[in-house]
Design goal:
heterodimer, A: alpha+beta, Alpha-Beta Plaits, 2 domains, eight-stranded antiparallel β-sheet, five-stranded antiparallel β-sheet, B: alpha+beta, Uridine Diphospho-n-acetylenolpyruvylglucosamine Reductase, domain 2, Vanillyl-alcohol Oxidase, Chain A, domain 3, 19% strand, globular
Chain lengths: 413, 499
Amino acid sequence: MSTAAGHVDPLAAARQERPSTLAEATEALRRADRDGERVLFLGGGTELSLGAPPTGVEVVLCTERLERIVEHAPLDQIVTVEAGVRLASLQDVLARSGQMLALDPPWASRATLGGLVATNAFGPLRTRYGSIRDLIIGVSIVRADGTEARGGGKVVKNVAGFDLPKLMVGSLGTLGFISTVTFRLHPRPQTERTVLFPDLDADAVRRVVLGLREAQLEPGAVAALVREGGDDLGVRFDGRFELGVRFDGFEAGVRQQGMKLLELATRRGWRAESLGAETARAFWARHDDARESSAGFRAKLAAQPMELERVANAAIGSLFTALEVPRCVCYPTLGLAFVAGEVRVAGQVAAAVTAAREAIPDGSVVLHAAPPEVRAAVDVWGASPAALPLMAAVKQRLDPGRRLAPGRFVGGL
Amino acid sequence: MSAPSVVTPAPAVEPIPAPASVIDRLIAVVGERNVIREPADLRTYECDALTSFRAAPSVVVLPASTEEVAAAVRIAVEAGMPVVPRGAGTGLSGGALPVKGCMLLGLSRMKRILEVDLDDGWIRVQPGVINLDVSKEISAAGYYYAPDPSSQSVCTIGGNVAENSGGAHCLKYGFTVNHVRGLRMVTAAGEVVDIGGPVLDGPGYDLLGVVVGSEGTLGIVTEVVLRILRKPEATRTFFATFPSTDEAGNCVSEIIGTGIVPAAIEMMDRLAIQAAVAATGVDWPDVGAALLMDVDGCTAEAEHTSEVAVGIARRTGAIEVRVPRSDDERMLMWKGRKSAFAAMGRLSPNYIVQDGVIPRKDIARVLSEISRLSQERGFRVANVFHAGDGNLHPLVLYDARIPGQEHAAEEMAGEILRICIRYGGSITGEHGVGADKAPYMGEMFSDADLDTMARVRCAFDPGTTFNPSKVFPTPRLCGDRPGPYRPHATEVAGLADRG
């Protein structure tokens, strides 16, 4: 395993377990419990650098052989998978029934469903379909003490008991081993169309977002990429974006919404064009490239959507100045953005992270990847959340020995 | 399971008076008028909409602010009193049922809308705000709050958060949990904590996901940040009648199979249709089943999907398809559907509203099992349900004046839950577990599942102060160390009896 940051691998000394059945996985956890060993769960390894490096891990439990699709019930629009199923292969299976899991994070061919749940990963489809917490309906876990437990179920509507599935979302393997997950599915859209605004400043992006809503348009995906306005010396941030708005669904609705958006653009004086299949693919490929760059530094920014101008100028701007080959993807309807690049001077990048955090005090800047020098200077999670004591209590009750990815999570949990 | 018009009154239970020192301290916090302690007044609070369970609280406190809630909780904790929160008391599972000796926190005075941010898409409200009042507040600007339980004109947001309430339109738009961005909550330590907020993806565990739907067992919510949505451009509705629920069920499956996600798709069987006709005067024919469906979105999409759906209805055996010609007609159709529960009073002196979920594809089989059960046990069952997500509401009709009927009807309603469990469904889709279904939790979940949930509960509330004896089949104490759970003190003392 090499981390994206390329620094010394803290897991090199750990024993690897590769269970091929859930029973074997449970057995491995019971053994670790008996021997008091610390455990890290590993899926596709796409977000291994997220969080603080866990300390003293003795066992790495790899899910790659837990790759069964346990149940796909097309008529009920649900699927249950083992943790190690890769997203792309699941989507292939679902596509045969005209369905999809409405989740399109980066690295779909490597990323596993267990890992995606644990890291709360997402892509542009979140615009319309929400995040994993809106798609997950059931989970089976193995606790640190080897106890198998289940929450939720396989029906979409269900309020029996506490929502353990949501508790697992984004928990980074610190509360239990996610062994199977059940998701609700959506029909694959019949068609889609992207309208591109090739050159907008942050304020105009914000106004397009408002315009979409005023015009009662319901795009499936909205993403803004920082325009590569640089010169031979590299990418410079001049505060300008290209914005893609994708409509999906039935032909009639997609066509009408695309036309309405173009009319709106004309009225407001924004340059916009409806992309053909090729150019649309090219735009979304640029989006994917920016998300998937295996950069030494990657940060996720969260703020209110209407704060975009401040996020762009203060947060994205300062990170772009500090990073080499910087890249950025914004999801302006959600108020979320990713900035990635290479670190040349760690002190400058750390200072830019601090500046970004100061610019959005009610939001967050979380480092998904960063070299040790940057991690030493700034906390990867930022300020502790107000509810940290409750989070610590949950961790204590489910993993009292602190043996699951110790230290990786918020507040050192 | 509720028996809304029980004729035999539950035996009056004398409240256990709260200690005078507690009363004095509470009066100092919220004022004389807002501390209710006369036995006759306390009885007003002895049940929620599930009237077959009753217990009078020792004292009812009506706080007006987060600070007052926190102070009251601290007083209760120091006095060793359980705390039971209550919104409008419309819940159907006994979630707001008092525990003997408890302090009942009535949050209905906390009904201010605190902040609206249309551009960022959220609204911050106190828990006593009525669900429908959220949408009214923002309606003129073209926005609305999506979750729409049938009781939305009276139920409160705080209660919705506790129960993770749904409604007819959650098939497309999700439940309360999908629309809560943040909470302010008073913990069992009497501290105020913010969880989440308007900005997405705050670092840390998704405690919001756990607190929403925890039925008042994890904390007392005093503010809620709700996501609000722009109204869709167009809504198209149709009403279709079928010879039986088989054809109607096939129609639902086919519509969903084409990739349409209806905003709502509701099914009623013959008895439910008769009741709606009797109660609201809708001119629905006497047929075996009916569907009421909404699609929404941009005009072209709504028109396309509604045309396709109407085509499917005709092909799958619809006797008649009606499309409302005006908004008034549409509202009347929905009124017929939404009044179906209450309308049962026209067909039967008493009835139990059941709430269970099954995989959608098994609707026909489950309905025939229910119908077989109905014949065996001699109770009529009317079915009203959210067909799109398999959420059944069988109404078991009985006559409480006949000795033994109420008990037998409740047993039959319980059997329906067992059918839901057997088909891989759930014992509740939207009404919650509360006191009513706690005994069934052990049939749906294993001991280990419940123990894991109980650990989460203990992380929030180690003294099990909040709403004890709800959700979990056996009250538990939180050990400091993992190990077998002991029964809760109130259970040992016979106070948590679920009579």
